[in-house]
Structures are given as structure tokens and as C-alpha cells.
Amino acid sequence: MWYQDSFDVIVVGGGHAGTEACLAAARMGCKTLLLTHNIDTLGAMSCNPAIGGIGKGHLVKEIDALGGLMAEAIDHGGIQFRTLNSSKGPAVRATRAQADRLLYKAYVRNYLENQENLTIFQQPCDDLILENDQIVGVSTQMGLKFKGKTVVLTVGTFLAGQIHIGLNNYQGGRAGDPASVDLASRLRDMPFRIERLKTGTPPRLDARTLDFSVMQEQPGDTPVPTFSFMGKTEHHPQQIPCYITHTNAQTHAVIREGLDRSPMYTGVIEGVGPRYCPSIEDKIMRFADKESHQIFVEPEGLTTHEVYPNGISTSLPFDVQMDLVRSIKGFENAHITRPGYAIEYDYFDPRDLKQTLESKFIQNMFFAGQINGTTGYEEAGAQGLVAGMNAACRVQGKEGWTPGREQAYMGVLIDDLSTLGTKEPYRMFTSRAEYRLLLREDNADIRLTEKGRELGLVGDARWQRFCEKMENIELERQRIRGVWIQKDHPAAEQLNPMLKNPISREANLEDLLRRPETRYQELMTIDAFAPGLDDKQAAEQVEIQIKYAGYIERQLDEIDKKKRHEGTLIPTDFDFSQISGLSNEVVAKLSDARPETLGKASRISGITPAAISLLLVYLKKHGLLRKTA
Amino acid sequence: MSDNSANKSLTNIETIAAQATPPGRGGVGIIRVSGPLASHAAEQLLGKVPKTRYAEYLQFLDANKQVIDQGIALFFKGPNSFTGEDVLELQGHGGPVILDMLLKHIIGLDNIRMAKPGEFSEQAFINDKLDLTQAEAIADLINSSSEQAARAALHSLQGDFSNLIHQLVDDVIHLRMYVEAAIDFPEEEIDFLADENVSNSLNGLITQVADVLAKAQQGAIIREGMRVVIAGRPNAGKSSLLNALSGRESAIVTDIEGTTRDVLSEQIHIDGMPLHIIDTAGLRESPDKVEQIGIERAWKEIKQADRVLLMIDSLQDEDVDPTQFWPEFFNQLPDNMGLTIVRNKADISGQVCGYKVSHEKPTITLSAKTGDGIDALTEHLKQCMGYEGNAEGGFMARRRHIQALENAQQHLLTGQEQLLSFMAGEILAEELRITQQALNEITGEFTSDDLLGQIFSSFCIGK
């Protein structure tokens, strides 16, 4: 049976990718359907209750800059906020917040329910409806069919999930939810390359059975940071601390004795786990000389006693989990509320996707989130937004868009995935970005909001605030270039203690601010320089833009140089073996990755500049040399 | 930003420079500069931009305005030039040292870099300066010249120099690992930026780069010219051939003591172009340990050669393909290695001396003893040099390496300043990233994922 209405964009899956995808499409005015197997789990955090961190916080700010929900939701659901790397430079500072799962989830669900142009329907999706190589709709478990011009698949961990606790294993999505097996097997019949990954979670504990007095308290920062550029500290609920404890020799002994029943060490699990998030048994085996490992004891919310002991993810049998938990300081009497487990799941080789996250094989079908081999809510949300936006562009007959590597971590993420693929659950790190000094949390809006407005992603309130901020920055930069001070000026007496070397000749405020030791707010306490900006975000920009100026310029230069053939398109069905002179190895690598552009081709490991030249000459010879938009 | 790129033409926004004539002591050596900064380079080198399309006789200056050379300077305004960009051509005396000094000055200017092998032709082709029918020839040129460049780079990276560079790269990676881990994993109790180890390692690196640079600039490491290795069975007449070849131009022969007791190398010049002739131990199965080592070294030379002269006895039946009677040799020979068959002892076999192609291989019949046919061989080698020696000589390779090292040095120093004065870890990280990028040009790529791999295998990361 066909559902009465047809949709512009159908989003399958209501996780963090699905949420941002359907919201983006709806904001752009598309008639959008969110199809989820369970409305009650919309906005659920299936892993640890936290948003942000280095690299990840950057992604959240970018989602926010494009009008997305994640930053706003965590501002309303966050119970401990910190700025990481605050002692280092602004480029690598990142916000991280601990979430109250229920508050976060409630905020997301409420927001979705009130989004204009968005319809929500609960039914597991178990098939895709294709016409030739084009998707035209989906059908659900009870045989209901939905017609859609485009479909965004965000079915994450649920794809053919296999949960392991000790040597026992069973099919399942995240613990407590069913795995979507039908859809997985349907997708397996399509021409995609499918691989297995694995990830894990720690056992959860009952806070009433823990002794926090022997752990180290870790309070949030004051003043409390916010995530959204529109965020206010008043949005935050009550703030509470986290705690830190450690594993010890006894913990390690317990784990070693249990290894013969570990699915990891007995070869039951085949999927590849992340290098940066090893299970506790992995940590102990690989770093045998380390006597102790940190555990961050994170509250799951204000109204629950459950805590998340971050750092002891494990798939050891339950009796070993009990012993290892109780060997830890402060956990001696701990009650485990949910056992830890490892989960293996399918993912689709993201090299089969275009830069817009559309499938290279099936038109109008987009993939976003964990299904593409990433891990983390932030990575999922970022892809969701890009996929939803590009689906909407397709419907509206507009050219698709994805930020470049020089514009956003989103761009780095999607370029890495679609060019290089991934062998482990992909997580963002700042070291993945070439232009780290440009891609900062603090300027995500300056990088993206204007483009977001143009696409229809950014609402009036945000746009107005953005324009005001930009104007403040511009006016203040003009002002401080015009404020001069001579060395015999009376204000020099106030100024010189703030400087490493006292001023020796006339200088303007910009010169002074360029000195690494000066601070904008401090300089503004000098009457001759006042009044400074009340707009804190704008003031921060003025300071950072001036201090980083040389480096920013250099990175912009570097970007310009790389632009040359970056957007030169390679035809989709191009046969690389036609090009004489390319080694077999290079042909194999290119055929495997099917890069869409010369720029992407040049980033594939083992592709030499000479190979790119040969490709270029070939394209030119055959009249295929065209630029993308 | 993507909107802007749509409007940009395909033209190169970078300015590139390289030697446009084959390496060696030709009568004239040409340096070509192509791109938007070509006129800027002219001002720096000549004190003026020559009138478009007029040859002017001018002095070529170095960075301190000292005269390096004098010669003809030509300036072409794009698109009416070989590459379609603004082009400056300097035609000076052909000596490698002078050309190297000129090139050094040019690529020392901001935003001018050394051209990749074949890049001028590539540019010309992309800018419609060359016919479509020339596409294959351009492709061949890019291919052969990048292979040549790779080989020249390999030669430049011999022995000590190579060890020092690799040690340097390893140490840069090691330091980056600490710095990047401290940035990406601030909660992992590894804040090394605050640690003295970082500034100590940085100091160490700066000393190392200075050492390597000093060594590279001594020039002892690199030998200019095509390497021709004489290989064959014992007693095939290899040493006689070496004597015959070097004897002809004994006036300018410099004997270089072989690095091993049984590999002898002599430099000769043909028409002013340098050539290394390397004599090796006869190849055979031998129970003698010392001889075995000699044979091993012979193979090492063969694998690094630009061309191998395989000496066989002209008493061998000419109708049998050499690959037939000595398959083990051909199996071990690297793919695409230039090979010439030399049929020696024509004075005994009575065969006619000279050049012909036999079994699809260039074949020279001669007598090393009497000298008959040596002419044909030198003529043949000259032809080979014209093609194989076309792209990059050792000086170019070394110039690339030195430039990479100088870049690395510059960024290490800036990084150190940022760290010491301002504790700016993210800037140090940026400078180290660029340092590594520069060194990658010598040792090959090292990706951010490789770096993450190093971090995860060295530190226990992960909540």
C-alpha cells in the first residue's frame, strides 16, 4: 500500500545523522519524512553521554553555524561544560559537555516534532524501492510504501549488529534495540562494498554504590562555556562535576586471567575496532608496562543514578566485568546496571559516495553517519546535515555543495571518507586538518553561516545576529588601527607593564595587539584605548584575527596554490587503465577509489605528481578538461 | 570559495623554474622561469625586465648583486610563450656549478619553486601551446623524466647523506607525535608541550638539519652525469673497455677510487657532458667469499645505473638472443633499464665493428683491445645521454634536496621561536607539519593518518 502523500526527502533513521538530515531538508523548505523504528529513541545517545571534544567540538560548532540542532540541544541538556586545551592557542581549543541523556533527548524530540515541513512516522524500514538506478521510495515492515524524490539512509549501528559479551553473542542494535537485519541484507544485494567494524561500551554503574570521596573531582569551567553561537548560559540546566579514578595492578591481573574468554582475543570478533578507543583488555595487553589507566566517571543525568565509567569499555564475560570493576578505587561495592559489550556492525565503503554523500551507483540516495564508517554523534550529525542539505538541493534543482577541506572539519571528514575510505571507525582529530589554524571553533560561523544562509539553512534570528557580529568586528578593527600611542603618552605608564618590551616608538592598537603577550580585554582597561566591544564573540575575533594574521595569510596562500586542479572533474566511469604510462599499482589504486576530481586523486596515498600530470594530459587530449562549479 | 575556483582559468598561479637544457658541460645552459613572477625574477636577476621577445646581453646577479655569469636574457609575455605563461629564459655558460647558483637564487625568491620533471611541457600542453597530437609525446616525457628524476634523487641520496636524512625525518616524526598527541588528547596525561623534552628535541633537530645541509653543500655526495655500468662474465674484456673509453679522453679523466675494492669508476666527458663508467666484477657463481661480495656490489651498481653495457664475446653465435643464453642475468635486471649489448673481441672473431639493433637490443661490436668500434660506442652513449640524461642531473636533484632542507630549517627555527617565546604549541605543530612536508619531498609521503598510527601505537589513548 502506498502512503497517501509523497515526499521530497525521506530520511531513514532517527539518530544524530538522521536528526540533522531531516532538519536541514525541512529548513530548506522540502517536504520531509523522518522514518524511525522508534520515536521514543529520537535523540538518544547510544554511547557515552557527552558531546564535543577536540575536533568533535569543532564539528558541533560547524553544524550550529549552518543552523543545525546539536549545539543548541547540548546547551539545553549539558550538565558539565569545559573548554579543552584552554592553555593552548585558539585553533585547538574545543568545547566538551557532559549531557543529561533525558534532557538532551527530550530537547531533540521536541524540536523535531515542532519543525515545519517535517513529518515523523514510526515503522522499521525494510526495503528500498528502485527504478533502474534511481531510488524512488522505501517500504516498511508492514508493507507500507512511501514515495520520495530523494532518500537519506542513516541507519548506523543497527545494520546487521552482532553484540558480544564474553563468548556469547546475539543479533541486536545498541543493547535493548533490534538490529535492522532485513534492510542490511537488502543492501548487501546492491553493488556496494560492505565491511565490518566494531566498537564497544563499558558497563554502567549505580552511583549509590560508588565512593566518590576517594576519587578526584573534575568540575566544569567557570564561566560556563556554551556551544551554540546563539547559546546563553541561562539555557544550561544545573551543573554537576565528573570524577576521575584509575585502574590498578589487581584490575590488570583480573583482566589477564579472563582473556581466554574474551571474544577479541579468541578470534570471535572479526571487525576492526578504533585505535584511539581501545577496550580495557586491549590497553592492558598493548601497553603492558603502563601500571594504571584513567577512568572518567561521568554522570548520565541529573535524575538518574546511572554513571558511565569512561575508559573501561570491555567485552569480557560478565563475571570478569564484575571483578574488574570492583578492583577499582571507589568502585569496591559497585553495582553494574548494564553490562559492557562489544558490537560488530556493517558499514559501506564511503569511497562509493560522491562528495555530496550521494551514492555513486544509485541516484538520489544519500548515506550519512555511522553507516559510512564513522563513529561519534558529532561526525554523524555533520554528515547528516550535509546529506540532508544536498538531498534538498537535488529536489530544488540546485547544484550540491559540501564545504572544502579549507572551509570546515565537515569538509575534511567527508573528503577523507569519500577519497580514502576508512579501515577503522573514523573519528575527527585536529591533526587530520591541513588548515588547522583556519578551522577554529570560534570562527565556524564566519566560515559557514553566509553559505548556509544562501542555501536556506540559516534562519532570520541567526542571520541577524551574525551580520551584527561581523559589523562589530569590522568597525572595531578599523577603530583600533586608528588608535595611536606615543612612547611619552601618559597611557604608556599603564601599558608598559603589560608588554614584554616597553613601547619605543609610536604604535597603533593593532600593533600592540599583535604582540603575543597582550590581551584585548586587558588593553581595553586603559582609558586611551577604551571603549572595547561589549560583544564578546566579536572581541575574541578581533584579537585572534590580529594575532594569527601571518599564519592565516600563509595558509590562505597554500590553499590558493592547491586550488589549481582541485576541482577538475574525472568522468564517473573513467577507465584509468587507458592511460599509458601509469603503473599497474597506480591504476589499481585509482580504480579502487574512483576519485571524482584530480584534487581527490592527488590525495590518495601512492599517487605521484607524475601520475596526476599524466591524468591531466589525458583529460586534456580527450577534451574532458572541465572545472566543477 | 568553490565559486571563485569556477572562474579561475586553468593557468598555473605558481611560478616554476628549472634548467631547460640537459645537465652537463654543454656550451650553453638555459634556465627557464615560467609563471606570474617571471618578471619579478628578471628584476632580481638582471636588474630589469628585458624587452619582450628581444634578446639582451646582460649580467646575471646573485642575491648579493654579485655577477654570477653573463649571457642572453629573453622575456616572453604570456600567452605568447612556450608555456603560455610569462617566461624568462637565461642562456648562460653551461657549467653545472654556475647554473646551479643561478637556479638557487631564483628558487630562493618567494613563491617560486622548482619545476617538476616535464612540467614546462605539461603547462604548454594544457595552455594549448602544443598540438593535441603531441599528447603522447608529452606523456612519455613526463614519464621518462620523472623516472630519471627519481633515479637522480636516488643517486643524490647515497650513503651517509641518506642515513642522515632518514634519521632526521624519523626524529621529526617522533617530535610531531608528542606535539600532536598533546594537542589532540589533552586529557590523556601527556602534556609534553610543557615538558623540556620538546625544546630539547627541537634543538637537536635544528643541529641535525644544519649538519645535513653542510654535508650536502660540500658536494662530495653527488656525482654529476649519467652512470654507465659495464657488466658481464669474468674475462669478457670489461676492464679493457674501461681503459679504451677513458683513454680516448685521458686529458680530462679524473680517477675516483672505487668505494669498494672491486668496483672501479672513471669519469669521462663526451662533448663536454660528464659520464661515469663503472667497471664491475665478473658475474658468475663462485664459492669464493670475497668474490661473492664483489658480485653483490656489481649488482648494486647495475641496479643504480642509467645504462648497462652487457659485454659478451663476439665468438658467441649472433643468432641466439642474449636473453636465451643468460636468462639469470636478465631476470635480475630491473624493468626498463637501458641496456646495450657489447660484443667484444671483434679482432679475434673477425666480425664487422659498429652499431646495429639485434634481437631488439642496441648492439655494438668492437674490440676493446684494438679500439676498433669504440667510436660507435661513444656515439651511441651520446645518443643515450641526449634522451636519458634529458631531464634531471645530479645537480638538480641535489638542488631539490637542499631546498627542501633549507625550508625545513627555516620552519624549525620559527617553531622554536614560537615555542620558547610564547609557548604556542599549535604554531609549533604547524611549523613541524610544514617541516615534514618539505622533507617528504626527499623521502616520500607521510600522511596524517600515519602520524595518528604512530601516536596510537606509542601512547595508550582512549577513554
From TrEMBL, chain A:
GO molecular function annotations of the record: flavin adenine dinucleotide binding
Query: What PROSITE patterns does the record tag this protein with?
Result: GIDA_1 (PS01280), GIDA_2 (PS01281)
Q: Could you state one GO cellular component term attached to this entry?
A: cytosol
Q: Where is the tRNA uridine 5-carboxymethylaminomethyl modification enzyme C-terminal subdomain domain?
A: 546-617
Location in the cell reads: Cytoplasm
Q: Does the keyword NAD belong to this entry? A: yes
Keywords carried by this UniProt record: Cytoplasm, FAD, Flavoprotein, NAD, tRNA processing
Source taxon at top rank: Bacteria
Query: Required co-factor?
Result: FAD
Q: Where does it mainly reside? A: cytoplasm
Per UniProt, NAD(+) binds at: 273-287
- Self-association or partners: how does it assemble? Homodimer. Heterotetramer of two MnmE and two MnmG subunits.
> What family does this belong to?
Belongs to the MnmG family.
The record describes the protein's role as: NAD-binding protein involved in the addition of a carboxymethylaminomethyl (cmnm) group at the wobble position (U34) of certain tRNAs, forming tRNA-cmnm(5)s(2)U34.
Q: What is this protein called?
A: tRNA uridine 5-carboxymethylaminomethyl modification enzyme MnmG
UniProtKB/TrEMBL annotation, chain B:
Entry binding sites for GTP: 235-240, 254-260, 279-282, 344-347
Q: Keywords assigned by UniProt?
A: Cytoplasm, GTP-binding, Hydrolase, Magnesium, Metal-binding, Nucleotide-binding, Potassium, tRNA processing
For this protein, the record's InterPro entries field holds: G_TrmE (IPR031168), GTP-bd (IPR006073), GTP-bd_TrmE_N (IPR018948), GTPase_MnmE (IPR004520), MnmE_dom2 (IPR027368), MnmE_helical (IPR025867), P-loop_NTPase (IPR027417), Small_GTP-bd (IPR005225)
Cite the cofactor comment. Answer: Binds 1 potassium ion per subunit.
Q: Where in the cell is it found?
A: Cytoplasm
Provide the E.C. number(s) assigned to this enzyme: 3.6.-.-
What enzyme category does the UniProt record give?
hydrolase
| Major localization listed first in the record, in broad terms | cytoplasm
The record's Gene Ontology biological-process terms are:
tRNA methylation; tRNA wobble uridine modification
Listed cofactors: K(+)
GO molecular function list: GTP binding; GTPase activity; metal ion binding
Record's signal peptide: none
- Which residues are (6S)-5-formyl-5,6,7,8-tetrahydrofolate-binding? 32, 89, 129, 463
Q: Which domain of life is it from?
A: Bacteria
- Positions with a binding annotation for Mg(2+): 239, 260
Where is each TrmE-type G domain found? 225-386
Against Pfam families, the record matches this protein to: MMR_HSR1, MnmE_helical, TrmE_N
Q: Where does this protein hold K(+)?
A: 235, 254, 256, 259
What the entry lists under HAMAP family is as follows: GTPase_MnmE (MF_00379)
Record-stated family: Belongs to the TRAFAC class TrmE-Era-EngA-EngB-Septin-like GTPase superfamily. TrmE GTPase family.
Its function? Exhibits a very high intrinsic GTPase hydrolysis rate. Involved in the addition of a carboxymethylaminomethyl (cmnm) group at the wobble position (U34) of certain tRNAs, forming tRNA-cmnm(5)s(2)U34.
Note the subunit structure: Homodimer. Heterotetramer of two MnmE and two MnmG subunits.
Name assigned to this protein = tRNA modification GTPase MnmE
* Name of the gene: mnmE
